Amino acid sequence: MKSIKTLNLGILLMAFIFTGCDDNLDLEPEQDLTPEAALGSANNIQNLLVGAYDLAGQNEIFAGSYNLASELIANTGELAWRGTFQGPAEFNRKQITTGNGFVADYWITSYAVSNQANLILENLDKFEEEEEAARVEGEAKFLRAAVYFDLLRFFSLPYKAEGGNSQLGVPLVTTGVSDASQIEYPSRNTVEEGYNFVIQDLTDAISKLPGSNPIDDFYANKFAAEALLARVYLQQGNYQGALEASNNVIESNSYSLTGNFAGAFNNDGNSTEDIFAWQITTQDGVNDMNVFWATRKFGGRSLTGDVTIEEPYFAVFNDEEDDRSMFFYTGDDTGTFSTTKWQNQFANIPFLRLAEMYLIRAESNFRLGSSLGATPVEDINTLRNRAGALTLSSATLEDILEERKRELAFEGFALHDVKRLEQSIDGLPFDANSLVLPIPQREMDANLNLEQNPGYTN
User: Fold this and answer.
1) Cα dist. 281→3, 54, 267, 347 in Å?
2) What are the record keywords, sorted (predicted)?
3) In a domain, 452, yes or no
């Protein structure tokens, strides 16, 4: 049975960092660890790494809120927001304010993960074994890359495949802070610098990490880093890079599609196709995908679910035998539909699935006119066969993109696919200012070196 034990140390250290500048909170109980002690041994650094995983898997970012923002901002009638929280309602209206609490939490928690990763990377000399130090370095860089990639995708104008990405990205912070006196006030790097940073972190992680993590299989390994790199390359429009990375993951034979579509979701442990999943237990973590997307009967907030699936979405299905077209249920006597993907409130949240790698390989091969590993139609049929759908004799780009919508629906891809494919949302162009999150007002007030995104007032 999975168990993530976070002290804890990571929590104590982050509490110290984020409260150290408040005179009213300068109490230092005798049992608390000083930053020096917290970073003083290999065992403590390993614990800090576990804490970083736990922090990244919180509901403010990867355990639900990032996905919720992507799906609702991209919504053009396929979904309905029926909840009472103002933050997601702003996403759905594409009228996001600088005081949006969900946005502030994204920013704060993402940089908290980055800070813990930085502290780990600065203390690798605590490890006597070179192999262990390399593994810890790779895991820390995987986590840091994951948060910066989504910060860039949400808080910056889209990456342009043709180059010239001098538009503002996010601050790239590479120095760890364990004392309030060390806090700096960085300005924003460019999008080009941000993507280069993420790619370098993931490239390093691939070279440092083993194919199987010796601590536990739910921590990152080299294939998790390579799968995330494939996603990054696809977002850039670097189809050759995306093709090679996704093919490496598939051809590793380390993962296999679950026997049926349902088997990929609502699992207490990793499924066979989970390259990486955020771990949720009854003791630790909150599955906000369940909180907002499930009905009250299955752990959600309301009878209908705060997010419901509306009739326009179902037009993507052209085969009534496709299991994915039936992976929905109705709220109690409401007639509304909810996705079955998030029915278990204590289930893991898949982050990198093998199915996505097949889709990336199919699209990249199609765009390049190649067939590395398999032809595009063979990869699409691999997913369609698993879902019980009819196989295709050939596949167009539209077929591949529609397969993404069927397979990866409600998993946080919607907004990012709209932007990379240069589509529109309710008449808004893919690079509209209102489709970019504002820098939280609290950050603008605290750091005068930050420049707000276009379309938002300081």
Assistant:
1) 8, 11, 11, 7
2) Cell outer membrane, Membrane, Signal
3) no
